[in-house]
Amino acid sequence: MSKLRTIELTYPHSLIVDELPESVAAIGFFDGIHKGHQKVIGTAVSEAKNRNMESMVITFHPHPSVVLKKDTTNVQYITPLREKQEVLQQLDVDRLYVITFNEELASLQPQEFIDHFIIGLKVKHLVAGFDFSFGHMGKGNMNVIQEYTRGYFDYTTIDKVEMDDEKISSTRIRELLRDGNVEVVHKLLGRPLTTNGVVIEGAKRGREIGYPTANLKVNPDAFLPKVGVYAVKVHYKNELYEGMANLGYNPTFTPDRKDPSLEINIFDYNNDLYGEELKVEWHKYIRDEEKFNSVEELIRAIESDEKKSRNYFYG
């Protein structure tokens, strides 16, 4: 597997066309890189292999709504940029272009966009979903793209991909995550939702009650599932561990907390993890977060959470 090379571009870019390799490119925002996105990207990768060219993904950052909708200041992503890079590496993509989405880019006419970011990046074959649009006000789309190719490239349009008679989409995945339905999200992504974070010092209450936890500082751009307790798996130093996670406000001890915390209890593991990076896989929603009247009540609930989580993983 070749290593993914990431290049960040802002309009106008200064890359010299003659110095670039001929490539087959998949283009889109690709938040989540779900099974629909994978069909677009996989088509580009296999077409590139057939043509003996580089495979490329062209994507954008930040989300267009941050620029186009005045009331949106930030967006949380199912796959923040780093997670997106990790998945694209696994999909055997050679090169990733991340184009800065700003007002200047949004104001380009469709032909200007194609000239600069498709022909200007030496793309010989373009793959996109049926609903991909480009250029000012989305005037360009896959129905009319032939008008803009100038004979330099050809293209493939991928129809919508469905599961259970419904289109697989980032919007659908977000709705499922708001309901805590990480198991269906797993099916739509073809892999579990993952969240990366660094272990920071916490209040150490878990240790006192027999359930030590790793408190994760998570990228604020990451879209997290709904508050609650989950069965999770944890990647740490090329090992995979089972455990459970509490995502929430810890109302039993910190009733005034404003921001949710993510605490992981790794089963049968008790080493110091401060400063270490973990990747959490979300596998099953166990219950909502509750405020308990006593520590004893909390411990009984955690014991039940552990039993349910272990049963989920080990049967």
From TrEMBL:
Span of domain Riboflavin kinase: 188-314
- Which family, according to the similarity comment? Belongs to the ribF family.
Q: Cite the SUPFAM superfamilies for this sequence.
A: Nucleotidylyl transferase, Riboflavin kinase-like
Sorted alphabetically, which PANTHER family does this protein's record hold? RIBOFLAVIN KINASE, RIBOFLAVIN KINASE/FMN ADENYLYLTRANSFERASE
* Keywords, ordered alphabetically: ATP-binding, FAD, Flavoprotein, FMN, Kinase, Multifunctional enzyme, Nucleotide-binding, Nucleotidyltransferase, Transferase
What is the superkingdom listed in this entry's lineage? Bacteria
Q: GO molecular function terms here?
A: FMN adenylyltransferase activity; riboflavin kinase activity
Catalysed transformations (reactions): FMN + ATP + H(+) = FAD + diphosphate; riboflavin + ATP = FMN + ADP + H(+)
What is the protein name given in its UniProt record?
Riboflavin biosynthesis protein
User: A Pfam family this protein belongs to?
Assistant: Flavokinase
Known EC number: 2.7.1.26, 2.7.7.2
Write the lineage as a comma-separated list. Bacteria, Bacillati, Bacillota, Bacilli, Bacillales
Q: In which pathway does it act?
A: Cofactor biosynthesis; FMN biosynthesis; FMN from riboflavin (ATP route): step 1/1; Cofactor biosynthesis; FAD biosynthesis; FAD from FMN: step 1/1
